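Might you be able to review the protein record set out just below?
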Amino acid sequence: MNEKPTVMETAGQMALPLGVTWGASFLCTMYGTEYPILSVLGTALPILSIIQLYRMLAAYRRLFPSVSWLHVLRISLVCCLLAGLLTDAVQYAYFLLLDNGRMLSHLSMVMQSEEYRQAWEQLMPDVNMEEMLQLMQSITIRDMVLQLATFNIILAFPFSLLAAMPVRPPRIRKEEKE
């Protein structure tokens, strides 16, 4: 405990539970169309992951009180990026092994409903819904996972900031001062 671990070592250890939480959130979201309680859980898990990361960062700051807040933010960002990579692996495995076109068939069923068509025409009158449906059905697993990976990278920044922002240096007790 004399010397602090590197940013990558620390973030790597913190990223595993965070990535598992995000992967579980993704899976709950995918199966949430059939089981609404999973949809709620899929929404709650990312929020809980911010608290989870905050607690890990606060514990790190208690172990190493001399580190700056920017160091904690750097750990948080690297941790979120690594957790995003783990989530990308879960997403890839899901689409490759479990989905079998399920998501696209659900989307096409939703897009064929009259309410959705009316909303589509109001929001995007210039876009042909049939062409959009054909485009969605031609998307490969690789393309889908690349889009999700980009989304995960973009989400890493606000998640890491939200988790690191409240982390403060530990309070020094009166007994320790004297």
Notes: The helical segments are 7-31, 36-63, 69-99, 102-112, 114-123, 129-137, 141-164, 174-177. Residues 3 and 114 are 63 Å apart (CA to CA). Residues 69-99 form the longest helix (31 residues).
